[in-house]
Specification:
Helix content is 47%, strand content 19%. It is of the alpha+beta class.
Length: 217
């Protein structure tokens, strides 16, 4: 299993990129957000990858964080969602957006992705709602980039979404879980709070989520 690629960008296309790893070129399919985050031709980058094995074809799909990769694997576990549909959903919403959308049960946002119909969107939300808290709690795990041109390891990142926001949501979700809230309701509250204030820090997210979880009346 090829789980990570690090090398020089050889060329970029509409839906994939060719990465040269010490003379071997790997063609990696990416969603729109990931492609936009990658550096230009000739520069070094790194991607987490998932290998799709078919009888007549092998395809590598690339992601800028372990959270994004995990969502891809979970989305593909839903009936009717293949690699193309998963990449469309991630490209439209981003990994954080997918987590918020599923936690809130907002299947209309999933339906906004290209090629996703209402039945498939509802199935995605219904089948993954119990798994959303676990993935959201992973936070952001950006890929370290290795500069092979100078034979020097450089710790850099290529995040698909703001790392602070992802980490804050993960920490807020963990805090609410420690307070005794069920994973599903905690994830929903954090998702709603993060949607209202995407750049909020952990403490602000916790306060906002607690207000949403407070008994009404």
């Amino acid at each position: 299993m090829i789980g990570r690629i690090a090398g020089r960008v050889d060329y970029r296309a509409e839906d994939h990129v060719l990465i040269d790893v010490r003379g071997v070129g790997y063609l990696v399919y990416c969603n729109d957000r990931t492609l936009q985050s990658l550096p230009g031709v000739g520069e070094h980058t790194a991607l987490y990858t998932d290998l799709l094995v078919r009888e007549d074809n092998l395809q590598l799909f690339g992601f800028t964080s372990l959270v994004e990769k995990e969502w891809h694997r979970l989305l593909m576990s839903v009936q009717g969602v293949g690699a193309k549909a998963s990449m469309a959903i991630l490209g439209a919403l981003g990994p954080d957006g997918v987590g918020r959308t599923i936690a809130l049960g907002d299947w209309n946002s999933v339906k906004a992705a290209k090629g996703i119909g209402p039945k498939t969107a509802q199935r995605v939300v219904n089948e993954l709602k119990d798994k959303a808290p676990q993935v959201m709690a992973m936070g952001a795990s950006p890929v370290p980039v290795i500069d092979r041109g100078s034979d020097e390891v450089i710790e850099a990142t290529v995040p698909a979404a703001p790392v602070a926001g992802s980490g804050a949501q993960a920490e807020a979700l963990s805090a609410l879980s420690n307070l005794g809230y069920a994973p599903g309701e905690a994830a929903g509250a954090v998702a709603q709070a993060a949607g209202d204030a995407p750049e909020a820090e952990t403490s602000a997210l916790i306060r906002a989520a607690l207000k949403l979880l407070a008994p009404k009346g």
